[in-house]
Each structure stands twice: as structure tokens, then as C-alpha cells.
Automatic annotation (TrEMBL):
Alphabetical list of SUPFAM superfamilies matching this protein: HAD-like
NCBIfam families: HAD-SF-IA-v1, HAD-SF-IA-v3
Listed name of the protein: Phosphoglycolate phosphatase
A GO biological process held by the record: DNA repair
Domain of life: Bacteria
One GO location term (cellular component): cytosol
GO molecular function, one term: phosphoglycolate phosphatase activity
Length: 225
């Protein structure tokens, strides 16, 4: 179908689902709860995808590691509460459900590599009826944070795929850097949290404007190899 590609690894927040409203609001609440100035929405979006403690530290340079951990734990508690009371809103981006359906093929493995923890990712995928579409899930609580290639390496090992058979699709420079460090193809998306210019500058082979563009673009990359 997409030969030589056999493994497609998606980012989650900003690529599969639009979770920025929840992330921004919860992060600002977490900072305020510990007496720190709430970071701007733009600054928060810029760091989405990193492990929470790293994200917090980047939002407040010089913050003590223990405080960063406390803010991250408060954030996690806010998100857990929203999952429990049903107020967590993470809609799929337009066209994502159709893309996942179109990639349902015996020759393809699908995976996720995300800054979410496993509980959060499982909840998101189950909510949208997509859990059984993915063969490997790599999360920040079980792997080294992006942009380290650990998540991609683990996904490839789980599916028995090599770098030349693997593509990462994501919305941040962290995704592109992770893919490049793992030696795999990177495709950026223009509907997420980092601008296309940043994605191209950090290793994207292409940036697509809509999920329907992914398969044709990857096929064109395949034919040019």
C-alpha cells in the first residue's frame, strides 16, 4: 500500500486530537495553584509534546526540579478530574478518523508516540473508538521524552520494522527531531501547534495541510526513493 513504509507513528495532541484548550487551561491552573505566574497560551502550546516535568521547566526557566514536579502532578490531577467528570474535550481533527480507516491494511502497523501518559492515551483512543486500530503505544511515562528517539525505537522493535520502513507524523519540531534522531521519515502537519517553517527546519520531509494529503504525499515520497 505504502511500500516500503510498514509503520506509521502518530503524535497525539495537535496531530490526532485538538486538546490545546484543555492543556492550556489546566497548565495555567497548575502554575497558579503553586503561586507562580501562569504562562501564556502561546508559550504552553510551544512546549506541548514534551514530558510534563520538562515542559514545566521550559515554561519557567530556573524553577526548582521539585517544584516542576509538583506543578506537573497538579496538572495531572486536573486532567484526571476532567476525565472522571466527563469535561475533558479532545476532539479529533477533521479528517483524522477517515485517515486511520484508510490506513487499516494488513501490510501496515500503526502506532502512537506521545507526551501523554498511558492512561491518558488509552482514554483518548477509546473515547474515539480507535484503540484497536493501533499496534504499538509509546508514552512519556514509559519512554524517554521527545525529541529523544526512544519512543520510535521502541515502536519499531515492537512491530519488527526498520527505519527505512517507518514514518512519524506530527505537529511539533520535537516530533521531527525525534524522527530524524531515529533515522526515519518525518511528515509534519500544518493544523497543530508549531508552524510549518519550524517543522521543515527540524527535519520534515514534507508538511501536509489536511489528513487526506498524507497517503498521497507518502506515496510520492516512496516513488522518489
Amino acid at each position: 500500500m505504502l511500500a516500503p513504509y510498514r509503520l506509521v507513528i502518530f503524535d497525539c495532541d495537535g496531530t490526532l486530537v485538538d486538546s490545546q484548550a484543555n492543556i492550556v487551561a489546566a497548565m495555567r491552573r497548575a502554575f497558579a495553584a503553586h503561586g507562580h505566574a501562569a504562562p501564556s497560551a502561546a508559550d504552553i502550546r510551544r512546549q506541548v509534546g514534551l514530558t510534563l516535568e520538562i515542559l514545566v521547566a521550559r515554561l519557567s526557566p530556573g524553577i526548582a526540579p521539585a517544584t516542576a514536579h509538583e506543578i506537573a502532578e497538579t496538572y495531572r490531577g486536573i486532567i484526571r478530574g476532567q476525565r472522571s467528570d466527563g469535561s475533558l474535550s479532545e476532539p479529533l481533527f477533521d479528517g483524522i478518523h477517515d485517515l486511520i480507516r484508510d490506513l487499516d491494511h494488513p501490510a501496515l502497523f500503526l502506532g502512537v508516540a506521545t507526551g501523554k501518559n498511558m492512561v491518558g492515551l488509552e482514554h483518548t483512543l477509546a473515547h474515539h473508538g480507535l484503540r484497536n486500530r493501533f499496534h504499538t503505544l509509546q508514552t512519556a511515562d514509559r519512554a524517554i521524552s521527545k525529541p529523544h528517539p526512544d519512543m520510535v525505537l521502541k515502536a519499531m522493535a515492537a512491530c519488527g520494522c526498520d527505519p527505512h520502513e517507518t514514518v512519524v507524523i506530527g505537529d511539533t519540531s520535537f516530533d521531527m527531531e525525534m524522527a530524524r534522531a531515529a533515522g526515519v521519515t518525518a511528515i509534519g502537519v500544518a493544523w497543530g501547534y508549531h508552524p510549518p517553517a519550524d517543522l521543515l527546519a527540524t527535519g520534515a520531509a514534507a508538511v501536509i495541510d489536511h489528513p487526506r494529503d498524507f497517503i498521497p504525499r507518502l506515496q510520492s515520497l516512496s516513488s522518489s526513493r
